[in-house]
Design goal:
There is one protein chain. It is globular, with a radius of gyration of 24 Å. The protein has 20 helices and 6 strands. The protein is mainly alpha-helical. Strands 1, 2, 3, 4, 5 and 6 form a 6-stranded mixed beta sheet that branches. The structure holds flavin-adenine dinucleotide. The site of flavin-adenine dinucleotide (FAD) has 29 residues, from helix 8, helix 10, helix 13 and helix 15.
């Protein structure tokens, strides 16, 4: 979204990505004092609907497009209620802004949110050129993170630690989260003569509205209104936030985790608002490891954005942040099996099918399928990253590439050769096999955790379950040596899967001292 401010004091154009909600407030407040008219603008940039960079998948999948269209509609409604509107255009932001400036004649400023990665920065540069050409002031804001870039306790972004825990400890000790800004009750109107424009339909991007799969873990709509309702539900109506740490590794249903990511990715909700609500909840209800852990995870999100600022285009390169030579393969058959959920490894297949059908996958699932693609199949990690870029409803360039680099062992992970054991993970987090049964119906007649290791079942057991391996369900495309340890093993009969916490008396302080390493704390069990 872009805001344009015409006139003197003027018209302001504000926009670019969908407004980060507190930026929108900041901009609109600023505009109240500095402009007679304000044009909040959202551009559907055609470049976002082309192909991914290396492997040419569609860049924006149907679930994300649907969510985006809903978010734009919601923002328009919100702005209308306050006396403004959202101007919507299809086109490159720099061209659209050029046309508006030309049409209006006197624009004072163009404001937008600053992004961190190449394609977005290129758009910013193009916008700057247009503004310079027309003698229009540029006003930029930073707002996607919990901690403001300027408040980081590192003298320069190049000094950002390469290890998350060091980053987290430093910001927690030395930086403050800025308060959110109130949205003005009444907004300056659009400049006369500016058409608000139609919100496009999916068909204009060559897509159809996707069907909602009843099994989805993310049955939500886009927009700030829905984001706030989700927070109200997760925090205040159900107190789910107070048990987040125990449930966050779940796989089925909406409530095992916050599901804030899709709204955060588009800027429909602000991490600072979530933070304020957590603090309020901690004061009024309870403060525990779970309430802290939501902030801990939001800090991962911050971290990957700052990593992108530090490393620039290196986050997209094959050798990653570590400039490490790895003999990645590009086997299209293996990749197709992975992306279509036909690897013959049920835990992987279930997750990949969920992603394709709904645009969402749990964090546990993502960690596993990424490890499987990079470590078990040895495929170019960017194939996986771009597949996620295409499909994820919560796709966020920094979080996606940061996590993929991490999983591939060429990002911000200080330890070598981390690898998930698909069978152990399946048994730990889907002990009874219910998740696999939900997404891989052709093997649903296999009872219990044995569903994770079909190839180890007797022929009689397989035929009783109606399975002909290699025919009705694939044989595994790969068998890792370490899996055999978990065959015929009784699954963990725990209500909740392990979360790496062994000592129930661990205090939040102790937990604060663990990083993502925490996920890997039982590393002897991983391989
Ligand atoms: C390979 C891979 C790719 C990923 N791609 C994305 C992506 O494109 N966009 C995205 O938002 N997240 C991504 N994640 C991180 C994480 O899986 C999702 O943020 C999370 O599953 C979203 O569900 P939730 O909102 O219920 O998360 P919750 O568990 O409720 O976490 C709360 C919030 O913390 C943040 N968060 C949690 N874990 C992470 C993490 N590992 N990295 C960064 N932020 C985190 C998210 O903003 C999330 O909404 C990826 C993880 C992996 C392993």
């Amino acid at each position: 979204m872009i805001c344009i401010a015409p006139g003197n004091p003027g018209v302001m154009i504000a926009g670019m990505v969908l407004w980060r909600s507190h930026v929108l407030r900041q901009v609109l407040r600023w505009a109240q004092n500095n402009a007679d008219y304000v044009i909040p603008l959202y551009c559907f940039d055609p470049r976002q609907y082309l192909r991914t960079y290396y492997y040419g998948f569609p860049k924006t999948g149907p679930h994300r497009l649907k969510f985006l269209l809903e978010s734009v509609k919601d923002l328009r409604q919100t702005l209308k209620k306050k006396g403004s509107n959202l101007v919507v255009r299809k086109g490159n932001p720099e061209d659209v802004v050029h046309d508006l400036i030309t049409q209006l004649g006197s624009v004072t400023a163009v404001a937008f949110h600053e992004e961190a990665t190449k394609e977005e920065l290129d758009v910013e540069k193009a916008l700057q050129r247009v503004c310079v050409q027309h003698g229009v002031k540029i006003q930029t804001f930073w707002a996607s993170t919990l901690y403001h870039r300027d408040d980081l306790p590192f003298r320069h972004i190049s000094r950002l630690p390469d290890v998350y825990t060091q980053f987290r400890k430093a910001v927690e000790a030395q930086a403050k989260v800025r308060p959110t800004v109130q949205m003005p009750d009444q907004l300056k109107p659009l400049a006369p003569g500016v058409e608000d424009g139609c919100i496009p339909v999916p068909e204009e991007f060559g897509q159809k509205d996707p069907l909602t799969d009843p099994r989805t873990a993310f049955p939500c709509c886009g927009g700030e209104t829905q984001a706030l309702m989700r927070l109200q539900h997760y925090f205040w109506d159900t107190n789910l936030v107070a048990s987040y740490k125990e449930t966050r590794n779940g796989l089925i249903g909406i409530d095992y985790s916050t599901k804030f990511a899709p709204w955060l990715a588009l800027g429909c909700i602000s991490p600072r608002y979530i933070y304020e609500q957590i603090r309020k909840y901690e004061k009024e209800r309870t403060a525990n490891q779970s309430t802290y852990w939501v902030i801990f995870e939001l800090l991962w999100r911050d971290y990957f954005r700052f990593v992108a600022l530090k490393y620039g285009t290196r986050i997209f390169l094959l050798k990653g942040l570590q400039d490490k030579e790895v003999p990645w393969k590009k086997d299209p058959k293996l990749f197709d099996a992975w992306k279509e959920g036909r690897t013959g490894v049920p835990f992987v297949d279930a997750n990949m099918r969920e992603l394709a059908a709904t645009g969402f996958m749990s964090n546990r699932g993502r960690q596993n399928v990424a490890s499987f693609l990079t470590k078990d199949l040895g495929l170019d990690w960017r194939m996986g990253a771009e597949w996620f870029e295409y499909l994820l409803v919560d796709y966020d360039v920094c979080s996606n590439y940061g996590n993929w680099l991490y999983s591939a062992g060429i990002g911000n992970d200080p330890r070598e050769n981390r690898k998930f054991n698909m069978i152990k993970q399946g048994l730990d987090y889907d002990s009874n096999g219910d998740y696999v049964r939900l997404w891989v119906p052709e093997i649903q007649c296999v009872k219990g955790g044995e569903i994770h290791t079909l190839w180890a079942l007797s022929n009689a057991a397989l035929s009783q379950a109606g399975i002909a391996l290699g025919e009705t369900y694939p044989l595994p495309v790969v068998l890792a040596r370490e899996w055999s340890r978990h065959i015929n093993q009784k699954p963990n009969k725990r209500d909740h899967p392990p979360r790496g916490r062994k000592d129930p008396s661990d205090t939040p302080r102790q937990h604060k001292d663990r990083g993502m390493d925490f996920y890997f704390s039982r590393n002897k069990d991983l391989s």
